[in-house]
Design a protein that fits this description.
The structure is a homodimer.
Chain A (H helix, E strand, L loop, with lengths): L1 H13 L2 H10 L5 E2 H8 L3 H13 L3 E6 L2 E6 L2 H13 L8 H8 L1 H5 L1 E3 L2 E3 H13 L3 E4 L3 E4 L1 H10 L3 H6 L7 E5 L4 E5 H13 L3 E3 L6 E3 L1 H11 L4
Antiparallel strand pairs in A: 1-3, 2-3, 4-5, 6-7, 8-9, 10-11
Helix pairs in contact in A: 2-3, 3-4
Chain A binds a DNA duplex (30 and 30 nucleotides) through helix 4.
Chain lengths: ~230, ~230
DNA sequence: ATGATAGTTCGGTATACACCGAACCATTGA
DNA sequence: TCAATGGTTCGGTGTATACCGAACTATCAT
């Protein structure tokens, strides 16, 4: 009885085409915004919101509010496993699903991209790691960083507009942003944005025309080695 | 696209409470009649028929027509696996589902029971094995047996009403019946029925009041050893 | 043949729910 | 403060489908 209902309920959640499309996208293991998922499912934001709420309620998805975005991801490996076995049943290969595979396989995107207004991917992680390893940045709480005195000096030296970043009073200064291709936090918030601006202003990096991919220039690579002590 | 639709379709099939109840029952690995499944799902025979047809169409179930019954079972281990992982998601233990567990755990029922009008379970298998090993019975086609001349003599010796069995012209004479607790064929049809009758008439076995369980008597055990060369 | 049982097909009803428009709340940046 | 953006809540509409009654086919027993 109970066990049967539980089975039908979770299966029914996956049984809707829009929800299945969302789950399919989430099978890449990354977190996606509600808008992103709405687009993937081909429904409006309202409809998507309803779907996402129900799946989160049923513990199929986990949510993390970040700024004005809400990131949804699969709640556990068990969920991914169940979806995978259903996909296998349908005679289709599970993991290399067309859309998410394109993401995963794009090495440039994994290497460096914008995440909102700051840097993500391997470069974003490398920058953050460098700052923490040199004692410029310390974790503060579970969602923020603290910029140390040595960190302030470092920023001034490499030309990060700290003053501008501090003027944005309504914005979080140094935020931890989870990177879902690297599965580790990188720096965001006003400071993260200012750091990214520095990269673009100094010609260390440049945005590609389409998408979120960012190209690290030769001088950018040199700066990574020279200023951050990181080889990427 | 295609992969997404396939996911939602198979999930939707499992997402209906009635179908989930049927699948749950079928998780015991045995084959069940349409009526049986309708009862388990709490729906009428018509409704159940529709559900079963759709699941068979989608290759979730396999069907085997046997007499006027149609036996449905899970089409593959993959199907069971998918159901299991969904049940796990729902936080419920998968295998020991209340109803089927009762079946499985009843050693008397596994030992000997009626299957329609003939003997099944370990005793049914033992009788059939004895007949084939002594050359009394030979497989004929994929669904029937052939009673050899020595088999006729054997039947006459132990008192099986062969004449009566042969009179039932409209009925299959010696049929292979799949035994889903033993996963091997045993003898059914008119001959199987006649053999079972012999067991009851001679006091070798007796039906219990409720259910399909059959008790093998002491003289029945002696007969199994003496006449069939089998120890059960 | 006749009646009984297992199963399916067909038609109509009723309920569940996915969907969107509109309004609303929260966060952000000027 | 205000405007912009991301997300959610609410109400009404439309479609999909589960359900059953009734009629039908196939198998089996007398």
């Amino acid at each position: 009885m109970t066990t049967v209902n539980a089975l039908s309920e979770v299966a029914a959640l996956m049984g809707d085409p829009a929800r299945a499309a969302m789950l399919s996208l989430l099978m890449d293991g990354r977190a996606h915004t509600a808008s992103d998922l709405a687009l993937a499912a081909g429904v409006t934001a309202q409809t998507a919101s309803g779907h996402l709420g129900r799946m989160a309620e049923a513990n199929l998805l986990a949510v993390r509010a970040q700024g004005r975005n809400r990131f949804y991801r699969l709640a556990s490996g068990d969920v991914a496993h169940a979806i995978e076995s259903l996909m296998a049943l349908a005679g289709t290969r599970a993991q290399p699903a067309s859309r998410s595979a394109a993401w995963r396989r794009d090495p440039d995107l994994r290497f460096c991209r914008t995440c909102y207004d700051h840097l993500a991917g391997q470069v974003g992680i490398a920058v953050t790691d460098s700052l923490t390893q040199h004692g410029h940045l310390e974790p503060k709480g579970s969602h923020d960083w603290k910029l140390t005195p040595s960190g302030e000096l470092f920023c001034m030296r490499v030309g990060v507009d700290l003053g501008g970043a501090r003027q944005a009073t309504t914005r979080h200064f140094a935020r931890q942003c989870l990177d879902w291709s690297e599965r580790r936090p990188h720096i965001s918030g006003a400071l993260g944005s200012a750091i990214a601006d520095t990269f673009f202003k100094k010609g260390w990096a440049e945005k590609l025309r389409r998408g979120r991919t960012v190209r690290l220039t030769d001088s950018g690579r040199r700066a990574m080695t020279r200023d951050f002590g990181a080889s990427v």
